[in-house]
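Dear all,

This email documents one entry for the complex benchmark we are building for the journal club exercise. For each entry we list the sequence lines for every component of the assembly. Then comes the predicted three-dimensional structure of the complex as a token string, followed by one or two observations. Please use this as the template for your own entries, and keep the labels exactly as they appear.
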Amino acid sequence: MKTTFQLAKGLTEETIRQIWQRKKEPQWMLEFRLRAFQIFQKLPLPKWGPDLSQINFEEFSYYQEVTESRPRSWKDIPQEIKATYEQLGLPEAEQRFLAGIATQAESQILYENLRRQLEKKGVIFLSIDEGLKKHPQLFRRYFASVISPADNKLAALNSAAWSGGSFIYIPPGVKISQPIQAYFLINIPSVGQFERTLIIVDEGAELNYIEGCSAPLYHQSSLHAGVVEVIVKAGAKMRYTTIQNWSKNVYNLTTQRAKVHQNATMEWIDGNIGSRITMKYPCCLLVGEGAKGYVLSLSFASRGQHHDTGAKMFHLAANTSSRVISKSISLEGGHSSYRGLVHIAPKAANSKSSVSCDALILDPQSRSDTYPTMRIKNPKSLMRHEATVSVLDKKKLNYLMSRGLSRTEAEGLLVTSFAAPITQQIPLEYASELNKLIKLEMEASVG
Amino acid sequence: MLVSLRTQSPTLVKLPSSLTQEQLEKWASTLLTSPFPSALPLSSSQLTLDKPGRYLIYALNSSCELEIEIKVPQTEVLVLAAYWGKGEERYSFHLEEGFHYPSCRSLVRAVSILEGAAKFSYQTTIQAKSKATNISAQQENYNLILSPKAEVETQPFLEINNGQLSCSHSSITASLDEEKLNFLLSRSLTPPQAKELLIKEILYTLEGRFKEFFGGE
């Protein structure tokens, strides 16, 4: 991957001005970025959760560009990017289909064929930079309306240095039957990935969006501090799926939040396999009566990894409902934590919430924590939470081995069946990729 | 008519190694009504169990802030708590339970009934150290909210550091079950009588858990 432009390491006001200038953004965006930078400098890192003390924000480069010109067809895609698709194990037909997606590599969009097909339905699917330029009023109306820079330190950092990501608008009543997909790649050491995604699903519309992340292994730490904002208007449906497989030196610290209006539905499907440290808590603000929020979360932590993941549900209106299913697997000294919050406000009469967390620990070196918090302030609501921590069932293991499977194969089968409630919700090609990744991790742990 | 719960500050009872069915029933029925004769009030918030055996710790309408360290194998611990908050009453049940050795069993059950502007805070942490294998640890919490100003906050935490045990927790917060209420009203009970019966159902689950845990059911 050839870098054609890269800023020096460290983040200063001058760096931000250079990013703004390079991207040719309007004046209000510069003011927004600078304000966010001031907030970033004041806010501390969280004192709970994984140890983030090793992060040195001055060691990262905050902006780079990969190629000068945009390719027009599959054959114009750089060979290095095609090779990355091969590493992901994608068949050629799928690679060509995926070539229709907008792929971000080091903060630059390379390919957008699908966009043109969707435009005929009035759908906007652009890089976030283009969204800002081509639809300034729509963009400005919703940008940072769900996650403000003051939300947390990493959201402030993203707000100051954001680059790349998707801007999607689905008009009222338009239902997109095929999933829209995007991949984000980190290919350069000490590069920060600060993609910002903004999705608006207008009244009665439907969208299924999938993002998968991949990165080759490097020695220096990389940082991914993404922000995803979703607005789901009345009667609309949105599903946002992430399969994260960052290399194991990446800090993955992402803020994802959706504002869900009357009778709308938001689903977060979150798969975390890679990264050294992940802190991610997809959130639904159920602001409209009858709104529904779902989080299905799968976490797989092996040696040297700490996944601190979960969900946040805020019931702010009557007759809202939420469901959280979390599955985590820890092996070879891996550390998985579920961290969740359900808040039922005084006005949220007749609201229902159900949370289930199941954790599987595969050996004595591994660790699993569960930190749920429930705050109930309405008497006409129902909140149910349950969690289990267990090991592989010895009877089932012995049975499978008696049928000729090796121990590794038997363990792999039990682990993939444990994860099945989550993997069954994602498209088949992703589910098989996910199961393959899990299998590879388990084989690697056995050596 | 049951209109309130008696107060019992956090208390420790060491049970005999075995109980007849009759003794079990007698012990269970005493739980909500009067103190156990052999009970020891807990004066400190830290309790170390260093002799194997069967222990009951319970509290009624008395906030509880307790750290229990189980530092011996072959130990069974049952923790029961019930709170019936009215007016502006505030109750909290904060428990940390640490398992250090193998072959131990524990059940924690805390229930609350909240009226008026009462508030209840439930926070428990189960920690299982690396040597604490073959552990069975369960936490249960049930909260009944009966008025718009009542509030509950629950935080059932688990920190598990080994791969040979089974742990679970559950927490339910709800209002009176409408179906059950309507059924009782259809059986000619008055609303206060129906409400009392449903509240008793929740409180008497403590007796049921006592019999299950120590009776081996």
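Observations: The mean pLDDT of chain B is 89. Chain B has one domain: 8-215.
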